[in-house]
Structures are given as structure tokens and as C-alpha cells.
Amino acid sequence: MRVQLFATCLGDLIFPDAVRDAEALLRDADVDVDFVERQVCCGQPAFNAGHRKAAKRVARTFDKAFSRDHPIVLASGSCATMASHYLPKLLDIEPYEVWELSSFLEHLGVEVASTNTGRTLAYHDSCHMLRDLDISDAPRRLLEKSGATLAPLERSDLCCGFGGTFSVRQPEVSVAMADDKLAAAADSGAEALVTADPGCLMHLTGRANRVGGVPIVHLATALRHGVGPTSG
After folding, report:
1. Residue 51 — φ and ψ, nearest 5°?
2. Does 23 share its domain with 66?
């Protein structure tokens, strides 16, 4: 089995450890991983902001970089949505085979290491991953396979407040939504809040650094290393 790993912009610039952990999880599953050096961006920021021409220009770099010979795997629900649902329509091209990391690992029937034995974790559903990709059970099952007990998170389906440009255009509402999510995580009794989307991770971590809260950890890191003192 061979796949192409798409780092995504936030993965490349802010969370490279999560990208490396995603690669390691794939290699542990005996998957050959190609990291395409020409990859840049899928065009999602411009697309979500309504700048279709700019989004097309960026999306073409994705189309030039990646092949249809092997699946594309990425540790980001929002970018997986863009690459699988919207980019082909935007460029009027044949779709790629795109997989979000947790759904791909579950598709392979991967048995992850027991990195979270004895830990209680909560999981936050990112909007694109839940609503556009209909992925909610796979990340939870993988966390349970890693030994974690999942604490119920009140309204885990509610947006964390990031929403791409929403957090810039409506900062007061965005911050309030993040605070609600952090409070729900604290009330659940979880030791950490896990998410599979770098956008949510960035937004919630930034807010938690200001007001406090449980560590926010990317799913790939939680599965690879467990949720410990240095994983958040």
C-alpha cells in the first residue's frame, strides 16, 4: 500500500509534529508514504473567503503536485473536505481518492499502540469533518483502541469558534465559542481534549494559553505518543 501525504498549510507551518506523527502511524501500519515536495496548499482559505479566482490559482498547485495513482491522506478534516469535495468542482477535474487520517487507519483495520492506557480523554468534532465527511466514530474508536476512556463532551458537535475567516470577522463570538468548548472539556473530567483538525487545534490552544484549560492535542499525536505532559 502506498499513499501520498498532504501536510496542509497549518500542518506545515504550525503543527509539523502532528504531520510527522501521522506519517509514523501510516508507516507503522506498513504503508509506504510519499511526501510530495511540490505540495503547497489546496486553496481552502481563499475558497472559504469567497475568492474563487485566487482559490483556483492555488488549487492548481495541488493538482500539479499530486498524482491519482495513489490515495492522498491528510490529518485535517477541513482540508480533506476541500480536496475531496470542492477542489475537483472548482477546477472541473476528476476527483482524487482522498482520505482523512483516522478514516483511513480504520479502513485498514489498524491496531494502534496502547499509548493512552488509563487516561480519560474528550474528543471534539470539527465542523467539516463531521458534517461534510460524516466522520465521527473513527477517531473515537482509535482513541479507545489506544487505551483511552472517552469522557462525554457536551455538544461535541458544536463549532469551536474557529471557522476559518469567521474567527477574524466575528472575534467576540469566536472567543466565546472557544471558551464554551474549553469549559465543556474541563467539566467532562477529561485530561485532554483531542481534535483531528489543525484549525480547531490552533484556535483552542491559543485560547487555552490565555485563559487556561486542559491540553489540546491533535489526534495523530495522541495516537502516536499518548496524551502526556509534553504532547499538548
Report:
1. -95, 80
2. yes
Rounded Cα distance, 7 and 225, in Å: 19
Burial degree of 229 (CB within 10 A; 0-12, 13-18, 19+): exposed
CATH number where 189 lies: 3.40.50.11810
Q: What is the DSSP letter of 189?
A: T
How far, in Å, CA of 78 to CA of 131, rounded?
Answer: 10
Amino acid identity for residue 4 in this structure: Q
Q: Is 32 exposed, middle or buried (0-12, 13-18, 19+ CB in 10 A)?
A: exposed
pLDDT tens-digit profile, the chain (232 residues): 999 999 999 999 999 999 999 999 999 999 999 999 999 999 999 999 899 999 999 999 999 999 999 999 999 999 999 999 999 999 999 999 999 999 999 999 999 999 999 999 999 999 999 999 999 999 999 999 999 999 999 989 999 999 877 877 888 999 999 999 999 999 999 999 999 999 999 999 999 999 999 999 999 999 999 997 545 4
Q: How far apart are CA 191 and CA 205, in angstroms?
A: 14
User: Cβ distance 183 to 120 under 8 Å?
Assistant: no
Give, as one character, the DSSP assignment of residue 170: S
Residue 17 domain boundaries? 2-106
